[in-house]
Amino acid sequence: MATSDTSQTGETPEAEGRVADAVRGNRVDTQAPPWTRPYLRLSRADRPVGTWLLLIPCWWAVTLAAASTGFLWIDLWIVLGCAIGAWLMRGAGCTWNDITDREIDAGVARTRSRPIPSGQVTVQNAVVWMVLQALTAFLILITFNTAAIALGIASLVLVAVYPFAKRFTYWPQMFLGLAFNWGALLAWTAHTGSLGWPALFLYLSGIAWTIFYDTIYAHQDKEDDALIGVKSTALLFGDQTALRLQQFGIASVGLMALAVLVALTHSAGQTAVIVGLMGVAGFGAHLYWQLRNLDADDADACLRLFRANRDAGLIPVLFFGLAILA
User: Fold this and answer.
1) Model's pTM, two decimal places?
2) Are 82 and 58 in contact (CB under 8 A)?
3) Which has the closest alpha carbon to 131: 107, 110, 156, 158?
4) Membrane spanning segments where (predicted)?
């Protein structure tokens, strides 16, 4: 179970307003205007790894699509628009999650310092903040083509359902994966104008990856979750966590390799295929490293490994980008 630390002044994170699992010294807590901090914390701006994990599947898709069908200048906007949109929609999604989970969060050591259960933000103000973020993200979405806009709107169903999954299934990580990797479908479509098999394979790869990293994350709370009746794959897998993560890691790597082969074998040169597969191999090597260093009973180690998945996910982005030039 994760434990909250104290500051050099002896204050708890709750006393400072800082969230327990935020990176110490982050810019929200040290540089943002004080009146904005509770809302930025509500959006998880003090814990940016989640934004990266939402954004990375978008970048997988747009770079692989560009390597497959050719780079377009609009791709630069897709890359940037997805980055801004990921920050906004992750913020809106986390705000919605905290609104629905406020009573659960109050009973978990790691989450009771979040803005709503700690009293920094009222539920009414949180709803307003959520709507503002979502509307701003919508302004970005409507700059894409019609098919991508439709996909973006459809994703709201998954965003709405996810916070409730932990109440009725031991697979909330799968629901998170369905929502968090939707950007792979959207970004591919924003480039090509329609869905394709490579996008679907990337989407499925991302879902398996999300189950991998979010199970590690969920091990921080497994004791509290068991006490209050919240379900997770960490509780479901138990002592078999390492084996199950190995299986999902293999599935993620295999599906990503399939996406590369389908996207590039007939539309790009052999060099592009090799470069793309090198990115998949690097991604797989990083997941293997995580498994070698996993201690599911060490909450701090689980948090470090979870955060390391930003680097894991960026490896394919780099090599898919290089494949465009191959």
Assistant:
1) 0.89
2) yes
3) 156
4) 49-66, 72-89, 138-164, 170-188, 195-213, 245-264, 271-289
Whether the Cβ atoms of residue 248 and residue 212 lie closer than 8 Å to each other: yes
**Cα-Cα-Cα-Cα dihedral sign, residues 97, 103, 106, 107:** negative
pLDDT tens digits, one per residue of 237-262: 999 999 999 999 999 999 999 999 99
Is residue 191 within 8 A of residue 75, CB to CB? The reply is yes
The C-alpha angle 315, 319, 320, rounded to 5 degrees, equals 110
CATH number of 35-324: 1.10.357.140
- Rounded Cα distance between 286 and 63, Å, is 20
DSSP per residue, 80-97? HHHHHHHHHHHHHHHHHH
Cα four-point dihedral sign 158, 317, 259, 49: negative
The answer to whether 232 and 247 have CB atoms below 8 angstroms apart is no
C-alpha 269/C-alpha 265 separation (Å) is 7
pLDDT at position 130 over 50: yes
Q: What is the DSSP string of 215-232?
A: HHHHGGGHHHHHHHT---
Contacts 24+ apart (CB under 8 A), 306-311: 306/49, 306/213, 306/214, 306/216, 306/217, 307/49, 309/49, 309/53, 309/209, 309/212, 309/213, 310/49, 310/52, 310/53, 310/56, 311/286
